[in-house]
Amino acid sequence: MDSAVQATQGRWLVAATAMTILLAGCGKSEPPAAAQQAVPVQVYTTRAQDLPVTFDFVGQTQSDQAVDIRARVAGFLIKRNYTEGSLVKANQLLFEIDHKPFQAQLDAARAQLNQQKARLEVANANLARVKPLAERNALSQKDLDDATGNYHSARAGVEQAQAEVETQQLNLSYTYVRAPVDGISSFAVLPEGAYVSTTNSLLTTVSTLQPMRINFSVSEPQTLQFRAQREDKSLVVPNDEHYTVTVVMADGSRYPQQGRITFADATYNQQTGTFLVRALMPNPDGVLRPGQFVRVLVDGATRPNAIVVPQRAVMHGPKGDVVFVVDKDNKAMPRPVMVGELSGPMWRIAKGLQPGEVVVVDGAGKLTEGAPVKVTGEAPIAAVGEGSRPPASTPSAPASAPSAPPASAPPAAKS
Known about the structure:
This protein has 415 residues and is of the alpha+beta class. It has 3 domains: 45-63 and 210-413, Efflux pump adaptor protein, beta barrel domain (Elongation Factor Tu (Ef-tu), domain 3, Beta Barrel); 72-98 and 176-207, CATH 2.40.50.100; 99-174, Helix Hairpins. The chain contains 4 helices and 21 strands. It has helices at 2-26, 100-135, 141-174, 220-231, and strands at residues 39-45, 49-63, 66-70, 75-80, 87-88, 93-97, 176-178, 183-185, 195-196, 202-207, 212-219, 244-248, 260-264, 274-281, 293-310, 315-317, 320-326, 331-343, 346-351, 358-362, 371-378. A 5-stranded mixed beta barrel has the order 1-20-17-18-21. It has a 4-stranded antiparallel β-sheet with strand order 3-10-8-5, with no helix packed on it. A hairpin with a 2-residue loop joins strand 18 and strand 19 (346-351). Helix 2 packs antiparallel against helix 3 (141-174). The longest helix has 36 residues, at 100-135.
């Protein structure tokens, strides 16, 4: 009996202890989770604006007039009268071919001319004697006809001899090879003492420097894209289709002169898949030389109502380009965007943003989706140095980036 009472009391004691622990637990609450702190950021508020467009190409300089200097007569090359690679003036003596054979031929032609002149004098005097006698019937008509024919034959002989003299004078002048234009000379193809003939007549090349051609190519997809953007009014070209062409040298410096587009090939090059466009650039100081590779910047077109953001606001990832937008609750939300071309320190946003949206510029790297933010002010826009221009390349193949020529370029690009 005592053991049964003790077992009952033990069960009541365990139950009482469990109730006490349960009541004690109910009297306490879980500690609140620490609130996520707002990330300080600087922002940029988007707005629609007319954005100047710069098309960027790789070009090569070409002389506007590159003249092959060739020998026009055969003979031995006896002298070179210029310094290879130097600037030469029009009519400057470059080469001399052995003159003696041509001088001898000229002397022979002059002697033949004198002989024909003497013959003409005799024929003329004979005709002068025969003509009055024939009029008085002292001589037959045949004698008059013979005298007249001899006179005209002698006169033709003089003219032929005179032409031969002029030919030999020209041949002798061709032994003095002169520059036809002002320009930069190339190396001498043949050394002194070499025999010049029709099979090896090239002596050197003289290329003009003022003005200078700038050739660059535009692909067919770029041309089609350009035309489509003109049609949908996302790109506006000048009314007169006048574009300004600027050249950037290999060291990054900008050439001080500006040129204009003068030619666009209407024929598609099947080997390169491009259209050729040519600009003419003033080159008064001869800074540009033929064959240089340069960057060609073509200005003049605009994009109406374009949206731009600072470059550092755009984050490039494996899934594309993203910016963080601050919503009405001051939370950062990622927004996929499609970027266009660079305009100074700004990316043009082709798709993904609307005017009036607040984009995180500085501090975006610390954000996650839905993170609270604290706007500390407008982000400073990095200024582009005076007289400089940033690269106009685009990130990972944006579909709407402008990469076509001016409308005055290939006719295929026109709407």
